[in-house]
């Protein structure tokens, strides 16, 4: 292709590289004086059917439009032309002379903090212009960055057509599969792998590039926290805490927790490295060989852990922390391996090391609490759970764990309060429900069990308590109400009769007895029960109404009228009593025979 002239203008000199979606060539621009060098990129649709070509053309035009605007930036190659020829799409861009950044950032080579910050500021400044136009680059990596020879500035290249995702683009279904794979493993965040890139996806890529520069490791080999999927890189490089926090935010697993765009990331970076920031004295760094050994042992330990070979995994994690005592990830994993082989005292030491270095690590505190419990060190375990709840006050599991531990310490009321809090946060949390019920039954807290609608447990608690105090009328009343709610009416009636035998003037028991007897169809006795309520509580309008209903069902209409009337007098706005009273009076009058006519005197 070296003799080919494209677009009647570009004389192809040599092939520069490419991938599955396109090829790049070095060319002379024959239309300009001196035939300056330029770069010609050819987009190659995988399919050549009409629909695929139309889709590729839309993407091609959109990229050209974006590059036309972005090309005004001094660190983005200018667009010279775009054209279509023989069902291929071509872009001609300014040629930038200089080495790729992959000659500075490569496996085994580590850059200083100062050089890394300088690189970050340079790239992010250019990326701000890209993001301001709502353009996502999608493939930021060392080989897509050029250190320009004339001024040593970093130039951002390779805005491939399928990587240009502006809001003006139409995204038909066939394009989705084309965009999913775009990007480079190690620099792509999870949302981009899923085909849903956003501006913060580029921020992630720049952050990964910085971590590669600081550690000298392939980004795919950086360890991740098994609990959160966050990168655990701090133990592999020494940078000031403020910068480490910025880098952590740039590479968050969840894109919503990252900086939303390059401008936010650049502003945070400038604040972190400003002259007013505290002076940072870096700790002694590992040699490249020691760092490589550290990562190799960590990977070996993780593999063994996955295979449930916990003894072997623990030995490997011990080698890691021996070489790098600040490796908090390895300390945490060592604790988990030791727990699995029931070496709880050693696990406590491992988890304590993590909490000393990372006090905000709630899960390390939680694991420490569990391990301390296994060592019967309940007071220290409780302190660990308290640390968890300071960091995560809505962690219902931690509240339940705290409740169980307080039970062990015989601090029963506090244990109940902890279970209550867990259930406030998650009402259907069965573990906490079970523990609270068990504790309430053991304490014979019948009223609480009844209020919580644990009727079976309330009955069981009553039975336990009645063994000690069989003449406790309150317990019999609670037992009756729980049985009534369980529709065990005959047994409920027995419980209420027991209350009355112990306390003949208990109007609540008489009323409940009347309700149960009515449901059982024993109307005569039910009416008598309601009658006793009205005797004990003559101002109880509801009891008078209930008494009236039963009397009416027993065809004792005159007595029923009196009862309804009494209810109406006590509560004039009580409509059911008034309606029943009027209805029954009308019915009684209708049932009376007509009066005999009076005889006239003779």
Low-confidence stretches: 161-181
Relative strand content: 5-15%
Radius of gyration, whole Å: 41 Å
Distance between the termini: 147 Å
Give the biggest sheet: 6 strands, antiparallel
Helix content: 55-70%
The assembly state of the depicted protein chains is single chain
* Broad CATH class of the domain at 101-275: Mainly Alpha
- Numbering strands along the chain, what is their spatial order in the largest sheet? 1-2-3-4-6-5
CATH topology of the domain at 101-275: Transferase(Phosphotransferase), domain 1
Q: How many strand segments?
A: 8
Structural class: alpha+beta
Report the CATH architecture of the domain at 101-275: Orthogonal Bundle
User: Mean pLDDT, as a whole number?
Assistant: 85
Helical segment count: 25
Described by the principal axes of the CA atoms, the overall outline is elongated
Query: CATH-wise, what's the superfamily of the domain at 101-275?
Result: Transferase(Phosphotransferase) domain 1
Please characterize this protein's 3D structure.
The protein is an alpha+beta fold. Among the domains are: 5-94, Phosphorylase Kinase, domain 1 (2-Layer Sandwich), CATH 3.30.200.20; 101-275, Transferase(Phosphotransferase), domain 1 (Orthogonal Bundle), CATH 1.10.510; 287-392, Tetratricopeptide repeat domain (Serine Threonine Protein Phosphatase 5, Tetratricopeptide repeat), CATH 1.25.40. The protein has helices at residues 50-70, 113-132, 173-180, 190-193, 199-215, 241-250, 262-272, 288-306, 310-323, 328-340, 344-357, 362-374, 378-391, 396-408, 412-425, 430-442, 446-451, 455-468, 473-485, 489-502, 507-519, 523-536, 541-553, 557-570, 575-591; strands spanning 5-6, 10-19, 22-29, 37-43, 79-85, 88-94, 145-147, 154-156. The strands form two sheets. It has a six-stranded antiparallel beta sheet, covered by helices on one side. A hairpin with a 6-residue loop joins β7 (145-147) and β8 (154-156). α8 runs antiparallel to α9, α14 runs antiparallel to α15 and α16 (430-442) packs parallel to α18. The longest helix is centred in the N-terminal third of the chain and has 21 residues, at 50-70. It is elongated, with a radius of gyration of 41 Å. The relative contact order is 0.04. Mean pLDDT is 85; it is low at 161-181.
């Amino acid at each position: 292709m070296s003799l080919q002239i494209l677009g009647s203008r570009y004389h192809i000199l040599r092939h520069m590289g490419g991938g599955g979606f396109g090829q790049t060539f070095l060319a002379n621009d024959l239309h300009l004086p001196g035939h300056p060098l330029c770069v010609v990129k050819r987009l190659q649709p995988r399919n050549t059917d009409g629909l695929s070509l139309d889709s590729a053309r839309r993407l091609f035009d959109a990229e050209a439009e974006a590059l036309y605007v972005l090309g005004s930036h001094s660190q983005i190659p200018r667009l010279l032309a775009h054209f279509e020829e023989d069902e291929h799409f071509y872009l001609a861009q300014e040629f930038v002379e200089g080495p790729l950044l992959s000659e500075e950032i490569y496996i085994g080579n580590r850059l200083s903090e100062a050089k890394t910050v300088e690189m970050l500021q340079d790239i992010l400044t250019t990326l701000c212009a890209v993001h301001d136009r709502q353009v996502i680059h999608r493939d930021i990596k060392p080989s897509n960055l050029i250190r320009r020879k004339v001024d040593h500035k970093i130039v951002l290249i390779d805005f491939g057509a399928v990587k240009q995702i502006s809001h003006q683009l139409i995204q038909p279904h066939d394009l989705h599969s084309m965009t999913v794979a775009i990007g480079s493993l190690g620099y792509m965040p999870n949302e981009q792998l899923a085909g849903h890139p956003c501006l913060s996806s580029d921020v992630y890529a720049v952050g990964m590039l910085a971590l590669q520069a600081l550690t000298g490791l392939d980004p795919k080999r950086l360890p991740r926290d098994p609990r959160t999927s966050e990168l655990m890189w701090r133990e592999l490089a020494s940078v000031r805490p403020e910068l480490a926090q910025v880098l952590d935010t740039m590479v968050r697993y969840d894109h919503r927790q990252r900086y939303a765009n390059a401008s936010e990331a650049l502003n945070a970076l400038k604040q972190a490295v400003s002259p007013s920031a505290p002076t940072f004295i870096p700790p002694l760094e590992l040699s490249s060989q020691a760092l490589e050994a550290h990562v190799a042992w960590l990977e070996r330990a993780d593999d063994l852990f996955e295979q449930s070979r916990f003894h072997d995994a623990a030995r490997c994690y011990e080698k890691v922390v021996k070489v790098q005592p600040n490796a908090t990830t390895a300390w945490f994993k060592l604790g988990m391996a030791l727990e699995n082989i029931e070496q709880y005292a050693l696990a406590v030491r491992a988890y304590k090391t993590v909490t000393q270095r990372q006090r905000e690590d709630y899960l390390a505190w939680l694991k420490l609490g569990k391990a301390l419990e296994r060592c019967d060190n309940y007071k220290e375990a409780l302190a660990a759970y308290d640390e968890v709840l300071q960091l995560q006050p809505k962690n219902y599991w931690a509240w339940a764990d705290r409740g169980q531990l307080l039970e062990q310490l015989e601090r029963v009321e506090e244990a109940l309060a902890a279970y209550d809090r867990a259930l406030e946060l998650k009402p259907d949390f069965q573990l906490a429900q079970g523990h609270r019920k068990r504790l309430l039954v053991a304490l014979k807290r019948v009223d609480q069990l009844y209020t919580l609608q644990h009727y079976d447990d309330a009955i069981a608690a009553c039975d336990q308590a009645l063994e000690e105090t069989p003449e406790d009328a309150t317990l019999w009343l609670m037992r009756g109400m729980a049985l009534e709610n369980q529709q065990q009416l005959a047994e409920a009636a027995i419980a209420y009769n027991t209350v009355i035998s112990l306390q003949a003037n208990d109007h609540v028991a008489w009323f409940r007895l009347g309700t149960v007897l009515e449901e059982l169809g024993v109307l005569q006795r039910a009416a008598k029960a309601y009658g006793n309520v009205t005797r004990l509580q003559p101002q109880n309008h509801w009891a008078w109404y209930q008494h009236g209903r039963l009397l009416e069902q027993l065809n004792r209409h005159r007595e029923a009228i009196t009862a309804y009337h009494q209810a109406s007098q006590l509560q004039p706005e009580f409509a059911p009593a008034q309606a029943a009273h009027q209805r029954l009076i009308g019915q009684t009058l209708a049932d009376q025979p007509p009066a005999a006519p009076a005889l006239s005197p003779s």
